[in-house]
Amino acid sequence: MITTRKTSQKSRWRLYGCLAIAVALLWGCSGTKQVLMPPKFVLKEFKRIGVIEFTANAEQELGPMATQNFMQALQSAQPGTRFLELGKVAPAPIDFKTIKALGREYQVDALIVGDLVISSVKPEVKLSVKSMSAKAYIEGVLKTKIYETASGATLWTKSSTRQERVAKISLNSLGKIPNFGISDPKEKYGNLVTGLVHHNTHDFRSYYVTRKQ
Fold first, then answer.
1. Are 144 and 181 a contacting pair, CB within 8 Å?
2. Which of 72, 49, 73, 54 shows the shortest CA–CA distance to 64?
3. Measured between alpha carbons, how far is 95 from 90 in angstroms, rounded to an integer?
4. Measured distance CA(201)–CA(74) in Å, rounded
5. Maximum distance among all Cα pairs of the chain, rounded to whole angstroms
6. Residue 123 to residues 142, 147, 180, 208: CA-CA distances in angstroms?
7. pLDDT value at residue 130
8. For the residues of 121-160, what is the DSSP string, one character each?
9. Does the structure show a pLDDT above 80 at 146?
């Protein structure tokens, strides 16, 4: 009886050992690791990149704001990128003849253009017997392109959309149309523009992927 019990215990321990080895093997086979991948679009092949000031349909300051944010994002992602700020040198939309002419005149290998469209305010008003609350949202669309100046061909294009809540609004005398309580464009649109640029420049940043070991 004692021998049978000892044999049974040994069998269980062998089984536990086999299970432990199997689990370790499965864990090793299914293990993953994070691998850093290079940007999808590399800018170092261009010696100098021209940047035309972005157009915008809202405040006059929005075009320069979006342009500067975009350049900062690219240089942060790929340090050493050289830009030549051209300002408003060509009307939009730009054609391939103008792209090639600007490349020759300013000696740039590529040209970046962008357009920022801000939608009208979308109000959300809640009324009750004791109180009234009001919120509003604005939506922005940022479209950017990179052209090769030697041929005028489009090398890269991206469109990004984002919605942002307006922090401060007030109702007009009719109590229907919300008006911004902020006069500074950076405070009014800063988060919206920053978010749009961050999404729009994703292809220029390194990123991680999960792979099996």
1. no
2. 54
3. 10
4. 7
5. 100
6. 22, 38, 11, 39
7. 53
8. PEEEEEE-SS-EEEEEEEEEEEEEEEEETTT--EEEEEEE
9. yes
CA dihedral 86, 91, 96, 100 (to 10 degrees): -30
The mean per-residue pLDDT over the stretch 37-53 comes to 96
Interacting residues of 204 by C-beta distance below 8 A, sequence separation 6+: 39, 40, 41, 43, 73, 74, 77, 78
Alpha-carbon distance 130 to 23, whole Å? Answer: 63
3-state secondary structure of 115: strand
Using the predicted structure, report yes or no on whether residue 80 has a pLDDT greater than 50.
yes
Please give the Cα distance from 77 to 58 (Å, whole number). 28
Q: How far is CA 71 from CA 58, 77, 101, 112, 118, in A?
A: 20, 10, 22, 10, 20
Confidence of residue 11 (pLDDT cuts 50, 70, 90): low
Percent of the chain with pLDDT over 90: 54
Residue for token pair 């049978």:
4
Looking at domain 36-207, which of 2.102.10, 2.60.40, 3.40.50, 3.30.110 is its CATH number?
Answer: 3.40.50
Q: Cβ distance 58 to 189 under 8 Å?
A: yes
- How far apart, in whole angstroms, are the C-alpha atoms of residue 135 and residue 38? 41
Q: What is the mean pLDDT of residues 182-207?
A: 87
Q: Which residue has the tokens 């942002």?
A: 164
Q: Which one-letter DSSP state was computed for residue 203?
A: G
| Percent of the chain residues topping a pLDDT of 70 | 70
